[in-house]
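Continuing from the previous page of notes. For each protein in this section, the sequence appears first, followed by its structure tokens. Read the first protein now.
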Amino acid sequence: MTLAPPSPGPSPTAVPGTCPTAVRVRLAVQPPHGRQARRIDGAWWPRSYDLMSELPVLLGGLPQVWGQISSVVVNGGEWSAPPGRMLVADHVVRVRRTDLPQAPPTACLLAPGRGRWDLLVVPPGASEAQARQLMADASGF
């Protein structure tokens, strides 16, 4: 996946850096070995397809060792139009949306010097049982 630089546009949109107590994300403990397609590092179950409200919650709930996420690319046409850039917990995050029908719904998180993490997106309307199963499958639990 290649990332294009953000298009010039309005200044980043400010979003409070607070997050609720229950972030619905499950991460893989150990990466798989061997040569294969890009792996999924875990799963994220947002409450809606509204990027402005969901991304601050996700980013606020990630492990500190992942560092400062500077770019997020979500795949799927259901997402609200991304703002291009948004301010999350006092830093600018570039946000982009793709719609690749052959690819699963994912969120790709990039942190300079730290790495890339791909999360399977569990549909917000999924039942708790469906979400639990998808999250377990994606994280290897």
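Done with the first. The second protein uses the same format. Note its length before scrolling.
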Amino acid sequence: MAKPTLFLTITILCIITITSNALIGGRTKIKDVKNNQEVQELGRYCVEENNRKVGSNGLKFVEVVKAESQVVSGTKYYLTIKAISSKGGKNSFFDAEIVVKPWVHSKELLTFRPGKGLK
């Protein structure tokens, strides 16, 4: 009788360990993005940094519409940003990835590319 109970206990502990480890380092959806000032400021920074890198003021930040975070060496943010073209006034969506390391006052824009919006 002790062997089946021990096997069941070990099996349950393994399942708990595996599922909890899957969450470590995973992406976490950020709720209430529109009212999250830090996320909105990061979105604005991404647009400004992209404009600086391409050498124009082609985009104007509107808002971050979706955001996720992931703990890496710092915090990596996955942002869906709505921006408006300064030339045609058309709203467009962009996907950006940015790593923030607050202890060294560092922000690094990793990617900024056209996105599909809220899909």
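What the second structure shows: The CA atoms of residues 19 and 48 lie 39 Å apart. The beta strands are 28-29, 59-72, 74-85, 91-101, 106-114. We return to this in next week's lecture.
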